[in-house]
Predict the structure.
Amino acid sequence: MKAAVRIRRALVTWYRNNKRDLPWRRTHDPYAIWISETMLQQTRVEAVIPYWERWMKRFPDVAALATADADDVMGHWAGLGYYSRARNLHAAARTVVEELGGELPDDVAGLRDLKGVGRYTAGAVASIAFDRPAPVVDGNVARVLTRLLEIREDVASPSVVERLWKEAAALARGPNPGDLNQALMELGATVCTPRAPHCSDCPLTRCCGARAAGDPETMPVKQPKASPRRVEAVCALVCRRGRALAVRRPPHGLLGGLWELPGGELEQVEAAEKGLARSLRERVGLDVKGVERVGSVRHVFTHRVLELTVFRAEARGGRVSLDGFDAHRWLARESLADLPTSSVARKAMALAAS
């Protein structure tokens, strides 16, 4: 990248004068930084702050996380989304304690050996926590660099991705790589925004190709996203002798390791009541009576829109037999709120209990 030294200096100076006061920026603890960078993936800073603070209070170091119960870990993540991140953190913490003497690796290669740590997270932790000249490229950095360099090709194409990492690596080589990387991310988050960028406040205005061309909002170039698939499903608050049935998803896959009300997806052109009876029989081995529809919950995932119809019902006799879940509990209805659940399951439980 041309004038890399000048660009680095401008970015670091701007960052030190304008950075937001975020709690993970007040520490040099590699573990705390690792947790923050993992939480920040595809999640807004404002949403992450309270989760990070609660997490650090409950799991203050890697040993505390490694020895924690899986439900406890998922419970402290519940509502943050992309739940594989929590499962991977838990597994990686165990590796660090059991195989690495309780210390996080201090370089990109070592960090990438940990479960769930990819190219971005390894670069962020290595540079911010260990002062390594490692690059980072996330959505914010990609937007800054494509505009700065006036890259008018699909930002997701392999050639552009590799170019961005190469340019980010060139910038990271020098003093204070952690501040430099955080400057790029901060600039994209607060100034070089997707819509109506604040170009007059940018430290790179004079050398920005998109600014000179007068069309920064046209970059980065992205292919249109496919429309999310609509999914219809049912669930029920199934009670027996005053206690409600909760089931847990297997540890892998969508919402893995989280608890919910039993149910399942509807088959094509299947009535909700009929689908509920079928799903409960197939997935938990129970027949029900006194079925009452109480409402519906809509939830948007990345690639699907879930329309979930919620019921209340009483279980007939018989033992629970699970198919597609890995655990179940009969609980007092008020205890359902104590389980680690997704936001959609929490909404369904609240609706069914109302």
Q: What stands out?
A: The first strand starts at residue 229 and ends at 240. The CA atoms of residues 38 and 241 lie 42 Å apart.
